[in-house]
Amino acid sequence: MDTAIRATGLGKRYGEHHALRGVDLEVAAGTVLGLLGPNGAGKTTTVRLLATLLEPDQGRAEVAGFDVVRQQRQVRRRIGLAGQYAAVDGLLTGRENLELLGRLLHLGRKGARARAAELLTRFELEGAAEKPAQTYSGGMRRRLDLAAALIGRPEVLFLDEPTTGLDPASRLVLWEMVREQVAQGVTVLLTTQYLEEADFLADRILVIDTGQVIAEGTPDELKRKVGEEWLEVGVSTDAALPQALAVLAPVAAAQPEVDRTGRRITVQLADGIGTIAAAAVALESAGVPVTDFALRRPSLDDVFFHLTGRGTQVGRAPEEGAQPLAQGPEGEAERDEKAEKAAPGEKAGRTENGEKAEREPVAAATARTGDEQ
User: Fold this and answer.
1) pTM of the full predicted structure?
2) pLDDT band at 272; cut points 50, 70, 90
3) Would you list the DSSP string of 272-304?
4) Is the pLDDT of residue 46 over 80?
């Protein structure tokens, strides 16, 4: 299978701050790679380097077979980018946003109009096509943003935390649209803090922290790093907890965890199905008043905690309009921007309009070099 994205030893530094420290990655064509990590881990920096918005201080990378430093024009013709916030012009209608980008990408007036109509239909935005984008809901703006990233039929699509702030229903819609693109052969590199998003979309996951890759594999492979299934047992009274602990201790592979407030015991099993049956019989024989008895596989939450030693509240999607919780006082994009301003001569990759500008340099550069090879 062809490799759509390949990076070796990528490093980026802003003064004394190391945003990336020797990142290696490969993404097979037509698959999804999820970059998982907390704020400040280096996810956005990785995307900017691969999308030619920044240049690495060390290492090299190829996207769609072209070097991201020496062949930036060829890379830009073949990629789409949706940043952390919807990069659409609120004063233009949905249709005008798409047609404008299409013309910048040299589709021509007729071609841009046809491509815009096609994407408005595919993303279920026909009814709002003539309304200003500033009147769209968060989910609609995100769909328009993804459509804009696809206007040039990219081979590779970069999605930097694409569902930040969306409600659960809007997230599911966007996930299905991403899957549709992958089914058509598009390669996707997805950054996310939401563990369930990585589990749902990614074929493979890179866990990145403090600018370094700390684990890689399929979701199931990463879950197996944590261990086997866990048995969760709930009891009806506080007095039953010591009794249940004594009964479950012989079948536990490690020290059981006790939630006294919820009257719940979590046990890592030593021997799969046989252990479950033995535990159920032992609890019943001892007369333990059980209110809940459930088998739970390790989740990406467990993987994240196991690998980083941090709590995983960063991985849970917030309610509509909320932002994901950060691990520090400022997010990665904000910290990178400050570092860029503090490092004269660095190629910033951002403008005073912030995230809105992330895709514009790609489109504008492509427009300026449309006839060059």
Assistant:
1) 0.72
2) low
3) HHHHHHHHHHHHHHTT--EEEEEEE---HHHHH
4) yes
Contact criterion met (CB below 8 Å) for 187 and 25: no
> Is residue 314 a contact partner of residue 325, using CB atoms and an 8 Å limit?
yes
Domains in the chain, ordered, with CATH? 3-223+316-368 (3.40.50.300), 228-297 (3.30.70.100)
Q: Which residues pair with 268 in a beta bridge?
A: 230
Q: How far is CA 209 from CA 22, 40, 87, 252, in A?
A: 12, 8, 27, 31
Please name which of 163, 175, 207 lies closest in space to residue 36, comparing C-alpha atoms.
207
Q: What is the pLDDT of residue 169?
A: 83
Q: Alpha-carbon distance 173 to 188, whole Å?
A: 17
Say if residues 85 and 350 touch (Cβ distance below 8 Å): no
Q: Which band of pLDDT confidence, cut at 50, 70 and 90, is reported for residue 255?
A: confident
Integer-rounded Cα Rg, in Å, for the chain is: 24
Tell how strand 187-192 and strand 204-209 pair up: unpaired
Size (the chain), residues: 373
Residue predicted with more confidence, 251 or 183: 183
